[in-house]
Design goal:
Layout: E1 3-8, H1 16-28, E2 33-38, E3 51-54, H2 56-59, H3 67-80, E4 83-86, H4 95-104, E5 109-112, H5 118-121, H6 123-127, E6 131-134, H7 142-148, E7 160-165, H8 179-193, E8 198-201, H9 211-217, E9 220-225, E10 228-233, H10 238-249, H11 255-261, E11 268-274, H12 278-284, E12 288-291, E13 307-308, H13 316-323, H14 326-335, H15 337-341, H16 348-359, E14 370-372, H17 378-381, H18 385-400, H19 404-412, H20 427-432, H21 434-445, H22 452-455
Parallel strand pairs: 1-2, 1-3, 2-14, 3-4, 4-5, 5-6, 7-8, 7-9, 9-12, 12-13
Antiparallel strand pairs: 10-11
């Protein structure tokens, strides 16, 4: 059994795809002990790991002013590990910072959705011989389909003809950056003019979180997309700073005006595009996809698995004509599941296997993964499942009854606040392990206790 540590920055409001991407190691690292450590939580001082994985939402924090502080927090775990894997996304943003981080900590492998022009993004890492391998921004997971598949309404009963949510990338990332959003908005306008019901947006305030995204997709007949990404890399974030300063002076300027009036000198021109995980999610929920023809995944063919929309919209009449044939479109949606969901290479399980093979941490001696908490002393103080269940119940009840602060004060003074008779038997344990219990309550109240919920599934709704 190998020790795998996943360094992450998940929050209670993280998108479902972000959580699934990070948590796949806990699901599929068969035969290995998997420990999740939130960079904002308690960092173990001693944690010798065979493999350390840095997730993309954590590496995305390189764009924030306190990145250097987070690097210091991660440093002990990285220094003690045998093999280090970075899984960035949006590599074109502050890529010099990312490249420097990889060099400073001798990151062994980078699994990135960007596969082209890597020498422009990672000059030091490429020269140093760091191993680069493709990792898409999201994958298919049979467990996720089992969990969300019931949201898929019969194709003919869906009330939204065209649905999509697209992140509109800023102009400093080049002309390609805005094309995905422009495609969705333009096609939605055309669809509305033809009487179709559309729910398409690039507004960040209208993003769906958690189950909301899958409920939305399960009620859409069609969605429209293309490869996303950038054509200009911003090595140190200076282009983004220029855009922000311009927007402060000209708050009503359009993206087009900004692109014309702000200098993007210092950026690196290249092809930094990637495939969206929406391909798999849409297929799993029976949505017929309208895509700009491109290289997506092996075996995904136009007219057979998706409706092709030319970049210049020259075939738009044909696209809308086909969309009126409900039976054909439903058949296309179902057919897309074969190359997208039926290929094992497109699963999170395959991704984990590739990472572990790279780190030589694979061990087939056990069929199950072992989850553990990022608090060093939890395993020492919790000796059985009954104690664990009681902790879950007590922490959740203090939160629901608004007594977390009161319970913390009691524990700090050496006593224990009993909420009901079920707590009597645990009073001695609680007083003896007050520090651990206090940390759990504080973390739960601040909603930063994410990975621990894998081992202790909070059940507030059932209390």
């Amino acid at each position: 059994m190998g020790q795998i540590t996943v360094l992450h920055a998940l929050r209670f409001d993280s998108r479902a795809t972000t959580s699934h991407h990070a948590l796949c190691f806990g699901r599929y690292s068969e035969g290995n002990r998997v420990e999740y450590v939130n960079v904002f939580g308690l960092i173990p001082t001693q944690l010798d790991s065979d493999v350390v994985v840095l997730t993309y939402e954590l590496l995305g924090l390189r764009n924030l002013p306190f990145w250097s502080s987070l690097v210091k927090r991660m440093s002990p775990i990285l220094r003690q590990s045998k093999y280090r894997v970075a899984m960035p996304q949006d590599d074109y943003s502050r890529c010099a910072v990312l490249d420097g981080f990889i060099s400073d900590f001798d990151i062994n492998a980078v699994f990135s959705p960007i596969t082209r022009d890597l020498h422009l993004l990672y000059p030091n890492s490429v020269t140093a011989g760091v191993h680069f391998e493709e990792a898409m921004t999201g994958y298919f997971d049979p467990q996720i389909r089992d969990q969300y598949g019931h949201f898929a309404k019969p194709f003919k009963d869906r009330t939204i003809d065209l649905g999509q949510r697209v992140r509109h990338l800023p102009p400093q990332l080049g002309l390609e950056a805005g094309k995905k959003g422009e495609l969705a908005i333009r096609f939605a306008d055309e669809a509305r003019n033809r009487g179709l019901t559309c729910d398409v947006s690039t507004n960040p305030a209208e993003v769906f979180l958690g189950d909301g995204w899958f409920k939305f997709l399960g009620n859409c007949r069609f969605t429209v997309s293309r490869r996303g990404g950038a054509s200009i890399a911003d090595p140190k974030g200076r282009l983004a700073d220029r855009v922000r300063r311009f927007q402060l002076r000209h708050p009503n300027a359009s993206m087009g005006e900004i692109a014309k009036k702000v200098s993007f000198r210092g950026g690196k021109q290249g092809d930094f595009s990637a495939i969206s995980p929406r391909l798999f999610e849409s297929a799993a929920l029976g949505v017929c996809q309208i895509l700009e023809p491109d290289e997506y995944v092996e075996g995904l063919d136009p007219w057979k698995h998706y409706i092709p929309l030319k970049q210049d919209f020259s075939n738009i009449d044909e696209v809308f004509r086909v969309m009126q044939d409900t039976d054909r479109c439903e058949a296309i949606a179902l057919a897309s599941q074969i190359p997208l969901l039926g290929n094992p290479k497109n699963t999170y399980k395959s991704l984990v296997e590739r990472v572990l093979i790279a780190g030589s941490a694979q061990d087939s001696s056990s069929e199950f993964s072992h989850f553990s908490d990022s608090s060093n002393d939890l395993g020492l103080t919790v000796s059985d499942d009954d104690t664990l269940k009681w902790i879950q119940s007590y922490v959740a009840r203090t939160f629901v009854k608004r007594k977390t602060a009161q319970a913390t004060r009691f524990l700090s003074s050496g006593s224990f606040l009993k909420l009901d008779e079920s707590d009597t038997a645990m009073a001695e344990w609680a007083e003896r392990n007050a520090d651990t219990l206090i940390r759990w309550m504080e973390a739960f109240e601040s909603r930063q206790l994410i990975v621990e919920s894998l081992m202790v599934p909070w059940t507030i709704a059932k209390l």
